[in-house]
Write a structure and sequence with these properties.
two-stranded antiparallel sheet, about 20% strand, alpha/beta, globular, about 210 residues
Length: about 210
């Protein structure tokens, strides 16, 4: 689909039967929609009545290795969501992203008209630089927000986050890093970790979307 900064691509995972709402999510700066959390959500949410759209930003579609500046990401994201609304038939939707994609979803939530945001591995600060906080982007989303955060995330563990207010929910993902990977020696498996993510997101989205 065209955007002011190049063509994007959306892969749809339709909900069978009655559609409760949509989940529109994008990737981070270091990977694509094949990320383990996005793939797990694309499998788990449709049976709950939530159609999933995994979006590849124009820079990924063009084969570039580096993401553009935040402003350019936002310029692409808003028309992407607007284009997808044509297929939603008025259904409520949540926007989401992992890492840099979570920042985009938060910054543009109001502009897209989203009912809520799911922030996967929100990069609260650069590794080793907790003073360079991006909490204002998260707190400024203006809609109900779910944060899923690995407790070994060098971009900010759950205990580093500020209070999210009455409409914010922070769900720690035990033993997980920024990509929600867990070490082989961890007391939980990778499958169990992904189930923590999909269960939390699914429960939250069902309540949000009605």
């Amino acid at each position: 689909m065209p955007t002011p900064v190049g063509d994007a691509r959306a892969t749809l995972y339709p909900a069978p039967g009655t559609v409760r709402g949509w989940f529109v999510a994008s990737h981070g700066a270091g990977g694509g929609i094949e990320a383990r959390d996005l793939a797990a959500l694309a499998a788990a949410l449709p049976p709950l009545g939530v159609t999933v759209a995994l979006v590849e930003q124009p820079w990924r579609v063009a084969g570039k290795k580096l993401a553009p500046a935040p402003k350019r990401l936002d310029e692409a994201w808003i028309p992407i969501v607007d284009a997808l609304k044509a297929d939603m038939a008025g259904a409520r939707f949540a926007v989401a992203g992992r890492s840099a994609g979570a920042r985009v979803a938060c910054r543009t939530a109001a502009a897209t008209g989203a009912a809520g945001v799911v922030a996967l591995a929100f990069p609260l600060h650069p590794p080793g630089k907790p003073a360079a906080s991006r909490a204002d982007e998260l707190l400024g989303a203006g809609v109900p927000t779910l944060v899923l955060q690995g407790d070994r995330d060098p971009f900010g563990g759950p205990d580093e986050f500020p209070a999210l207010g009455a409409t914010g929910t922070l769900t720690p993902v035990p033993h997980a890093d920024h990509g929600f990977a867990v070490a082989k020696r961890a007391p939980v498996s990778q499958d169990e970790t992904l189930k923590t993510i999909t269960d939390a997101a699914g429960t939250w989205l069902v309540k949000l979307l009605g």
